[in-house]
Amino acid sequence: MKDYVIITDSTCDLTSDYLNELDVKVIPLKFIYEEKSYYDGTGMSYKDFYNLLREKKNVKTSQVNTETFIKEFEPYLNQQMDILYIAFSSALSGTFSCAEIAKNELIEQYPERKIIVVDSRSASMGEGLLVYYAAQKKKEGLSIDDLSEWIEKNKLNVCHWFTVDDLFHLKRGGRVSSASALFGSMLGIKPILHVDNAGKLITTEKVRGRKAALISLVDHMKNSAEVTTNDVVFISHGDALADANFVKDLILKNFDVKEVKINYIGSVIGAHAGPGTVALFFMGKNR
C-alpha cells in the first residue's frame, strides 16, 4: 500500500499537540486586524482575539490560496507520498475550491502520485471530528481510496449544533437581520444553529436565555446521536469555557462515551460566530 498523509486546515479547531498525536498535518488560515495578518492559532492569544471581538473591532478572515496549497502539498509529493486533504466546508469558504485547483495543477507535474481533496461540509470541531475518525481509520490500515470512500459515506453523520451569545456577529455576517439582532438581544433570545447537509450554517430555532440554549444543544444530541462507548464528542467555544464545561457535564450524565474534548473556536470561525459561542459535535443518524 502506498504511503499517504492526511492534511486538513486550521478551521478544524484541534490543538497542534492533538493533531501531532493523530499524525495529521494542518494548513493555517489567516485573519487580518489593523492591516496585519495573523495565522489562525498563532501570533495572538485566543483571549486577546475574543476581547477584540467584544470591543467590536473589525477583524477580517482569509482563506488558503492556491499558491499556498501547492507550496504545502509539494514536499509530500517529492517524498513519494499521496495526499488526502480534508477541507473546510465549501459552503462557508473558498478554501476547498483553491485546494482543487492546486490538486489539478500538481497532478500534471506528479502524474504518478494521488491527491484526493474532500469537502468535509463541516466546520470547527465538526471538521475536527471527521479528521479524528479519519486518522483512526488510517491507523487501522485503510488505504487512501478506502478512507476517502469512508469519509464520503460518513461525513453527513457528523452533527453540528451551535448557539451564540451575541447576535451582533451573526448580523454582521448576514445571518440575521438588524431588527432581529436588536430585538433578540433585548429579549434575551438565543438562536440554535446547525450545519446542514450542504455545509451551510442555518438557524433552526430560537430559545429564551443562555442556559436554555445550552441545554437545547444536548437535547438535539439525545434526539439524533448514535454514539457508543468508543466514540468521542467534541465541544468548541468562543472564550466561554464555563459554558462548554456545563454542556460537557450534561453529556456525561446522559451518555457513556469514550471522551469529551473541549477546545477554543479558532479565530477564522470565531470572527463570524463571536465570543460566547458554544458548539457541540457528535456522530448521529443524520444532520
Task: Write a structural description.
This protein is globular. It is α/β, with parallel strands linked by helices and 287 residues long. The protein is built from 11 helices and 13 strands. The strands form 3 sheets. A 6-stranded mixed sheet has the order 10-9-8-13-11-12, with helices on both faces. Strands 2-1-6-7 form a 4-stranded parallel sheet, sandwiched between helices. The chain has helices spanning 16-22, 46-54, 66-78, 95-109, 124-139, 144-154, 168-172, 178-187, 210-224, 241-254, 267-273; strands at 4-9, 24-27, 30-33, 36-39, 59-62, 82-87, 115-119, 158-163, 189-195, 201-208, 232-237, 259-264, 278-283. The chain has 2 domains: 4-156, Rossmann fold (3-Layer(aba) Sandwich); 157-283, Hypothetical Protein Tm841, Chain: A,domain 3 (2-Layer Sandwich). The longest helix has 16 residues, at 124-139.
